[in-house]
Specification:
The complex is a heterodimer.
Chain A: H1 2-22, H2 31-53, E1 56-58, E2 63-65, H3 67-97, H4 102-124, H5 128-147, H6 152-182, H7 186-203, H8 212-219, H9 222-251, H10 253-276, H11 281-302, H12 304-336, H13 347-350, H14 352-365, H15 372-386, H16 390-415, H17 434-452, H18 455-469
Chain B: H1 3-26, H2 30-55, H3 58-84, H4 99-115, H5 117-120, H6 129-133, H7 135-151, H8 155-175, H9 180-208
Helix pairs in contact in B: 1-2, 1-4, 1-7, 1-8, 2-3, 2-8, 3-9, 4-7, 7-8, 8-9
The chains are: A mainly alpha, B mainly alpha.
Chain lengths: 472, 224
């Protein structure tokens, strides 16, 4: 069914053209959400097709869909829907506050659609070169979106994102070139795998090339931060999974395992140490992403069907939870005017819905049931112990615990307590825009549903993990 | 073309690549760096041409012509335009400069030859030996680019690092005999990016010479 394969790229492309041509106005406000919903629908279409009939390709062999790409398409589509549903309310508030203009709103929407299109393209790419090219385009679109803030800090964040990620992608590209050359030679393959892992690791915000992530997430507009953390990091994680599969096939499991486990542990260490004294809640969420992607890398290092199924579910749950959290954080910033943790007090009293959704998002992120990150986190840990890597998993669990403590401490300071009573501030409960509420609650609901009843996803997940275990 | 001449020309082109990479690291002034990039683009296109003659390949001739236009023409031109839009101010000193940077190139080149030894040993039987032996040069250019990226302050000097990495990757792709599809993908992934980034950067620069926004210090954002 080639229509399902072209739609995730073509529909948002059309959306981007429409925004560029028509601008941002009442009539086009929901265009983005419709396009994203179509991407998600096409993803579901691909998934059904793949479960029924196995993998298929299109576009002269440039695009390929198997269970893995179908699953990633679902992640990208779901995150895109959340981000675009929350966009009109976000832009309306920014326009009202004078931080955006009709012109920036137009290009914001067009670039977001472009970002969704190239992310879909990267996921559907049949070979590593196309995957890298797709991610590169996504980095560019994101860099543009982050830099739109026009402040000095935004320009710096955008530049860091583009430079660090381009350098990472250049290394990945070199690895891709070498893979074609070395064939089955072990030593040559090792060089290529190291380059690819470091490259995709930079994109996934893993240490040591993680420095772009907190800046970009902190400066990006809320819907963009949601897409960046929920979709772009997931696609980079997917790149890591594919490289690990290639490496396992050519070099045995140990080489890739050592490499990824090292990345995972360093990333979790960085995340834990920088989270403890964090003062900015958007940067806090970004460092949490570094830690979560570290867990994904750990799961990939463990390998095997159980761990890989858990890793994929983890990408899905993390994408949704982070999308909800960044959308919530963007709203918090709009209502409080600050991104500092100590600038936000007693949010629950004035903004109960927003505070509730943000708190629930944090709990989802920490892996509390019923959210799906509970099942996936447990799955990764169990697989680790089963593979005889308990000595590695146990200290990682300590780091995860430290991260959880830091997140709970920071968040409870923001949400609970007495709201500051500044003179002239309106009292009483402030309502959240309906579309934002829908995005926040919808994301949380799907994240919980995937944790409680993963049945519709289970077959797809199992097939996707099989793709990674069996063939490259 | 005899085998000996082919090897000599190949080594000449690769020597040019390495020398220009060292120059790009050594010189700090952007106007000089632009000229170095033109030379490097010519060397890269020359490498493509030598391989095209040796392999009697029309595709490689096309690639060489494309490289000449892009790497010796378009990219340096755009880069120089962006550099011209640069507001006049004291050049930000790189973290590593002068003769120390030349030592760094030497060390990086050694490192490249050590790391890439398995790749050299992979020479395909018959004829490919000279090209494979030169792969470490491409790797050295990539490493030098990474070094420039890491030690330079300011947007344009860092961009120069990316350009170096781009040229190095292309050199490796040519020397490993990567297929046309891969070469084109590499070009699409990096060159389009570079063109767009430079354009965006020079647009921002021109607009902001009035304001005080500049990326040179890059220390607005941190965990404080």
């Amino acid at each position: 069914m080639t229509v399902f394969m072209f739609a995730p790229v073509a529909v948002p492309l059309l959306g981007a053209i429409a925004y560029a041509a028509l601008g941002w106005r009442a009539a086009t406000a929901w265009l983005g959400a419709i396009a994203a919903a179509l991407v998600l629908a096409a993803g579901i279409g691909v998934a059904i097709e793949v479960v029924d009939a196995g993998q298929f390709s299109a576009g002269a062999g440039l695009l390929r869909a198997d269970a893995l790409t179908a699953f990633l398409l679902l992640v990208v589509g779901a995150v895109a829907v959340l981000a675009t549903v929350a966009t009109p309310a976000h832009l309306a508030a920014e326009l009202e506050a004078g931080r955006a203009t009709e012109r920036t709103a137009r290009w914001h929407c067009a670039a977001v659609q472009l970002l969704i299109a190239v992310l879909s393209l990267a996921v559907l790419a049949a070979d590593l070169g196309m995957l890298v090219a797709g991610i590169e385009a996504a980095v560019l679109a994101t860099g543009f979106l982050v830099g739109q803030g026009a402040s000095r800090a935004a320009a710096e964040a955008a530049w860091k994102l583009v430079v660090v990620c381009s350098a990472g992608l250049a290394l990945a590209l070199l690895g891709t070139v070498l893979i074609a050359y070395v064939g089955s030679d072990v030593d040559g393959m090792r060089i290529a795998v190291v380059l690819l892992v470091v490259g995709f690791g930079a994109l996934a915000g893993l240490a040591p090339l993680h420095a772009w992530s907190p800046d970009a997430h902190g400066q990006a507009p809320a819907p963009v931060a949601a897409l960046l953390s929920g979709a772009l990091l997931s696609v980079a994680g997917y790149g890591l999974l594919r490289v690990k599969a290639l490496s396992d096939l050519a070099l045995g499991i140990t080489f890739g395992r050592v490499l990824l486990a090292a990345l995972a542990v360093v990333s979790l260490l960085v995340a834990a140490s920088l989270l403890l004294a964090q003062r900015d809640y958007q940067r806090m969420l970004a460092y949490s992403s570094t830690g979560q992607l570290g867990l994904v890398a750990l799961g990939a290092a463990i390998g095997g069907p159980l761990a890989l199924t858990a890793v994929l579910l983890h990408l899905f749950g993390h994408g949704l939870a982070k999308a909800v959290l960044f959308l919530g954080a963007g709203r918090i910033r709009q209502v409080t005017g600050t991104s500092r943790i100590d600038g936000v007090r007693g949010l629950a009293a004035r903004h109960p819905m927003l505070a509730g959704a943000f708190g629930a998002g944090i709990l989802a992120l920490l892996g509390l049931p019923p959210f799906s990150l509970f099942a996936s986190g447990l799955g990764i840990a169990r697989a680790g112990f089963a593979a005889g890597l308990g000595w590695l998993v146990a200290p990682v669990l300590v780091l995860v615990l430290a991260i959880a403590v830091a997140l709970i401490a920071h968040t409870s300071r923001m949400l609970l307590g007495e709201p500051p009573d500044s003179p002239g501030a309106a009292t009483g409960v402030v309502r959240l825009p309906g579309s934002t509420t829908a995005a926040l609650l919808g994301g949380l609901a799907v994240c919980a549903a995937a944790g409680i009843a993963a049945e519709p996803l289970a077959t797809l997940l199992r097939l996707a993990a099989d793709t990674l275990v069996g063939t490259p | 073309m005899t085998e000996a001449l082919y090897t000599q020309l190949l080594d000449l082109a690769c020597g040019g690549l390495l020398l220009t990479a060292a120059l790009a690291l050594w010189r700090v002034r952007l106007a000089v760096v632009v000229r170095v990039f033109v030379l490097q683009g010519v060397a890269l296109a020359g490498l493509g041409a030598v391989l095209a003659i040796h392999g009697v390949s029309v595709q490689l001739w096309a690639v060489a012509a494309g490289l000449l236009v892009l790497r010796a023409g378009v990219l340096p031109y755009l880069f120089s335009r962006a550099a011209a839009a640069e507001p006049v101010r004291a050049a930000a000193r790189p973290l590593v400069a002068g003769s120390v940077s030349l030592l760094a190139v030497a060390a990086l080149t050694l490192l490249a030859f050590v790391v890439a030894r398995p790749l050299v040993e992979l020479a395909p039987p018959g004829g490919g030996k000279a090209a494979s032996a030169a792969i470490p040069v491409g790797v050295a250019v990539v490493l030098t680019g990474f070094f420039v990226l890491a030690t330079r302050r300011g947007a344009l000097p860092q961009l120069a690092g990316l350009l170096l990495m781009d040229n190095g990757i292309t050199a490796v792709a040519l020397l490993t005999g990567a297929g046309l599809a891969l070469l084109v993908q590499a070009a699409v992934a990096l060159d389009v990016l570079l063109v767009l980034v430079i354009l965006q950067l020079s647009a921002t620069r021109t607009r902001e010479t009035v304001g005080d926004t500049d990326l040179d210090e890059l220390r607005e954002l941190r965990d404080s």
